[in-house]
Amino acid sequence: MLKHDLSDGVQNKCQICENENLELVIDLGNQPLADKLRPISENVTKETSYPLVQVWCSNCGLNQLNYICPSEVMFGDDYNYKTGVTKELVEYQAAMAAELTHSLGLDNGDLVCDLGSNDGTLLRGFLDQGVQVIGVEPTDIADVANQDGIPTIRMPFGEAAANLVIEKSGKVTLATATNVFAHVQKLGDFLRGLDIVLKDDGWFCFENHYLGSILDRSQYDTIYHEHLRSLSVSALVCLFEQYNFSVLQISQTKRYGGNIRVLVRKGRHNQIDGSVSKLIDSERELGFFKSSTYKNFRENAQDTKIGLIQALIALKKEGKSVAGYSLPARAMTLINYVGIDHDLMPYIVEQPSSLKLNKFVPGTRIPVISNDCLETKKPDYLVVFAWHLKEEILSHLRERGIKGTCIFPLPKVEFVEL
Questions:
Q1: Separation of alpha carbons 138 and 35, rounded Å
Q2: Are the C-beta atoms of residues 195 and 266 closer than 8 Å to each other?
Q3: pTM
Q4: How many other CB atoms are found less than 10 A from the CB of residue 38?
Q5: Torsion of CA 88, 233, 119, 156, to 10 degrees
Q6: How far apart are alpha carbons 330 and 328 in whole angstroms?
Q7: What percent of the chain is modeled with pLDDT above 90?
Q8: What is the distance between the terminal CA atoms of the chain, rounded to a whole angstrom?
Q9: Residue ranges per structural domain of the chain
Q10: pLDDT band at 1 (very low <50, low <70, confident <90, very high)
Q11: For the segment 286-308, what is each residue's pLDDT rounded down to a tens digit?
């Protein structure tokens, strides 16, 4: 097996540095796949679950799953995530495209390739800036992008896809990946493909959940089967040093409850500023390499689990009506770990354009319905699973005139009156 091309199943060593000294972060039990929702109309008699256990590497600081589900099972047809459904994310990615176009001096002579491009939302932003684009997307959402005029190759990104991009459109000035890099199983193939597809001194910019934010805010719900690893800067530098790339700059953003935006360049280059070294130093100070840090994280997760389930049981006994609000993939981990079922939560609402409507939450019989119903059903309490968008959601619900109380499950259980 080629370096960093990970096999399915149990992982006995670090995905980046191959250290075999891995310690427990948290065991979330066996869980179903987060983005595989079955239609309510379908007679589902069984559902497959896989181990969901996070461990950490004492050498490079990587957090990773200790079991990898086959990628062809996780991705492919019936994938239920579409970037363009979320207005705030569309706006964010348009701004990201504008910022990168300006900072890297891109124009209509440059080609941007988004890796894991979903419905082409980010590439639409680059098109609006007058830059040429092409996407690579392994799921059936690629069909949506092509129908919307965003040229997209349907396959996982790697060496084969890189050569096909060059054949179709030429070499790439900038490759991007948003909330994708942590999903990649054939990591070596991905990086070899990146080396092929980029021009000399070409750029790679990606965003992903940051381990620092995950630990700081008890975000165990960011751990699900698609997220093979939770990234620290220390681990990223260790990875890219093994290939023909340099990590030049890292900034922190607020997406997904705390992201990092990483700017990498092909070849050997000096850092743009002190951001990379500063974050590596802070990771040591914050305890990324201490067992006690992960023990505290695990105990915080257990405390919030108990607090939420006790609150829901108490509300049930009081005869209060409770619904779920919003269903990002991270919600599936929380719902299944806490043990929420349709007795405690008869339904969860999503946007009317969501691909998850009229389906069951994986691992449960909780149906997902349109949030248009809130004015008529008037639940007493809403458990907000996209808790990391707290202020935006509270503002939206208040503008609609929705009454009741919101329950935010993390970083601690919190009740907020509307």
A1: 14
A2: yes
A3: 0.89
A4: 15
A5: -170
A6: 5
A7: 85
A8: 55
A9: 83-289, 318-417
A10: very low
A11: 999 999 999 999 999 999 999 99
Half-sphere exposure of 191 (CA within 13 A, CB side): 23
157 SS3 class: coil
Measured CA distances, 54 to 71, 227, 403 (Å):
18, 10, 38
Gap between the Cα atoms of 62 and 191, Å rounded: 18
| Cβ 189 vs Cβ 158: under 8 Å | yes
Longest dimension (CA), the chain: 65
Class at the top of the CATH hierarchy for domain 83-289 = alpha beta
Q: 3-state class of 396 per DSSP?
A: helix
- Could you identify the residue written with the tokens 């461990």? 55
For 327, the token pair is 């269903």
Q: How far apart are CA 123 and CA 145, in angstroms?
A: 10
The Cα–Cα gap between 139 and 156 comes to 8
Note the pLDDT tens digit of each residue in 109-122. 999 999 999 999 99
With H, G, I as helix, E, B as strand and everything else as coil, classify residue 369. Answer: strand
Residue type, 119: D
Beta bridge partners of 249: 263
CA dist., res. 269 & res. 378, Å (int): 57
Pairing relationship of beta strands 368-370 and 405-408 according to DSSP bridges: unpaired
What CATH class is the domain 318-417?
Answer: alpha beta
Tokens of 173: 């000035």
Residues in the chain: 418
